[in-house]
Amino acid sequence: MVDEAVPTGVIEIRLTKLDQLFNSLDPAPFHERDLDDDAEEYIVAWVRELPATAKIQILVHLPESEVSGAAEQSLTTAFANYFDYRASVVERETRELFRMGWRYLLIGLPVLVVCFIASQLVQTNIGASPLARALGESFIIVGWVANWKPIETFLYGWWPLRRRYNLYRRLARATVELRSR
């Protein structure tokens, strides 16, 4: 029974052979193989167009001779495994981004402190001249610019990764249906 309150986005793929869907260079067993880059790009592009709450259904249209082989090899499991793997890759990228953000912060904060101190030293030692004021402000600007990267990382950098992670998790839960042409 389908919950009618939650919309379902249907992605249709028409193939002549099931092998078109997977990377031909990947020697792994069927349910662990990588999707073909073009197939992944097509599926992901369609899902990005759907509302975030929509359930995802992937309809794979194959010739009658290919449908039984695809059913035996569990196409649903292959999709779930692949997109779970892609989500875990994005999760690792996110952790690495935050690790780098902390490194940026460990560099940026001391630079900011030194720049604040230098700004104060310039103003107290040189006086209130326009040159001293410009030099003092320049130090403050340099200090904040040194912290731009950690601020960007922690405020904005992780959002695209989180969206991609959620997209791959949704795709891993997608229902896959085989249809003969």
In short:
This protein is mainly alpha-helical and 181 residues long. The protein is built from 6 helices and 3 strands, in the order βαβαααααβ.
Instruction: Report the sheet with the most strands, covering strand number, pairing sense and barrel closure.
Output: 3 strands, parallel
Give the helix proportion (percent range).
55-70%
> Would you report the number of β strands?
3
Strand order of the largest sheet: 1-2-3
Shape: rod-shaped
Distance between the termini: 25 Å
Q: Which stretches are low in confidence, meaning pLDDT under 50 for 5 or more residues running?
A: none
Number of helices: 6
Average pLDDT, all residues:
88
Integer tally of domains: 2
- Hey, roughly how much beta strand do the residues contain? 5-15%
Cα-based radius of gyration, to the nearest Å: 26 Å
Query: What's the order of the H and E elements?
Result: EHEHHHHHE
